[in-house]
Write a structure and sequence with these properties.
- This protein is an alpha+beta fold.
- It has two helices and eight strands.
- The chain has a four-stranded antiparallel beta sheet, with helices on one face.
- It is elongated and about 95 Å long.
- The termini are far apart.
């Protein structure tokens, strides 16, 4: 009789310690991934809001060019609201900081910033900065050409 045949075969499996170790490793990897993804979603929201503001500024410029009439985009950094051409309006999430730099002459109210676009494409110029934590985007409007550009920036303090 063969010794292997007579021996009791022991099933090979995982010990409780091995299973617990794998579960701890999976939990640690999940917690690490959640932190990375959570920060990624916040940055995606920041970038999305900056793109939306840039889009509304470009729309106001396009309306000024098409109609030949001045169009105004205004933003209230404290209330987190903006108003654009053709009655468009929106809200910036409270989780983002808003800072405006521009000409005082076109301010519709104290603390509210505005950029005016003219029928020839020019504008009063200005900058809207949206930021969160250590990330920020500047949306710049050139005063001579009215061109709107967006780029990463250092957050203002």
């Amino acid at each position: 009789m063969d010794a292997r045949r007579g021996a009791i075969h022991r099933s090979r499996g995982f010990s409780l310690l091995e299973v617990l170790l794998v579960m701890v490793l999976i939990g640690a990897a999940g917690a690490l991934a959640a932190g990375v993804v959570g920060g990624g979603f916040k940055r995606m929201e920041l970038r999305g809001q900056a793109r939306d503001i840039a889009l509304q500024l470009r729309f106001a410029r396009a309306r000024a060019l098409v109609t030949g009439e001045p169009q105004t985009f205004s933003i209230d950094p404290v209330a987190h609201v903006w108003k654009g051409a053709d009655g468009r309006s929106g809200r910036v999430p409270d989780s983002l900081r808003v800072h405006f730099t521009g000409a005082r002459e076109v301010q519709p109210a104290e603390g509210v910033g505005a950029i005016m676009f003219f029928g020839d494409g020019a504008s009063t110029g200005g900058r809207v900065q949206l930021s969160r934590d250590d990330a920020a985007f500047d949306i710049d409007v050139a005063w001579l050409t009215g061109q709107v550009s967006m780029h990463r920036a250092e957050p203002r303090q």
